[in-house]
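explain this.
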Amino acid sequence: MSSNRERNDRKSGRKPPPRSRSEEPAKPGRKGDRAAAPDPWDAKPAREPGRDKGRDRLDPDSLIWGRHPVLAALANPARQGMGRLMATADRAAELERDKLLNGHAVEVVDGDRLARLLPPGAVHQGLVFKVKPLEGVDLDDLAHPARGILVMLDQLTDPQNVGAIFRSALAFGARGIIVQDRHSPALAGPLAKTAAGATERLPCARVTNLSRALRTLQEAGWHIVGLEGEGEMTLDEALDGRPTALVMGSEGDGLRRLVAENCDTLARIPMPGGFESLNVSNAAAVALYEASRKQTG
């Protein structure tokens, strides 16, 4: 209706009545105006306070947050020149004072704004880093020479479990982790937060076919030990100090049949307490400890 009245006014030569101040369109770029140009960090422009909570959030698979994960990412040479770093004022001052930026620019953002970019409940500790996925390493780089410990994850999908395994693998001196490309979470978001920087320091190979990868490892001299609750040997019996690849099954189904068939040994963790099973990340920590003990013993 208003547009028709304006056309009629133009034809008649009469000017439309002046708009009230509340009806005037805001000028783009003016501080405090809702129509100001959106910050490029926003997934979508922010709306009225208290409405549409979460509209600012970005894809968590493209983010790293928390002090240890972000500092590890900044120190990773593979990240040089990539990503966008946001920090609260005190964190930005700390990064500059301690020379931790490693060539990255930092954008100062208040803590509430950082929280709106992340999943509910995420603890950012004043640091958020928007990144691209790391390319990873080739399987041959981990297979040769056959030395130490590798970890293979058979379709583990829980980011926190995978992150915890990365952390344990780094702590017990594993050379790297192998995952299936199509059924593995991104090495960012909650996974990177749980890993506390281990994803930046531990090489990861993404492969198309785990069974084929196991055969490649065997040909290179690796002893393949699959963790299975009904394994024919105990973990202590299966580990003998040879270069060892530990294979962990998924949270619900365990090892898939073809993956299990391509293991040299299926081993169980004895549980004299009578409890049925361990969480996969806890089982991986136990297996890594035992394997590292045999390697050094």
The longest strand covers residues 149-153. Confidence is low (pLDDT under 50) at residues 1-16, 20-38, 40-54. The longest helix spans residues 280-296. The chain is about 35% helix and 15% strand.
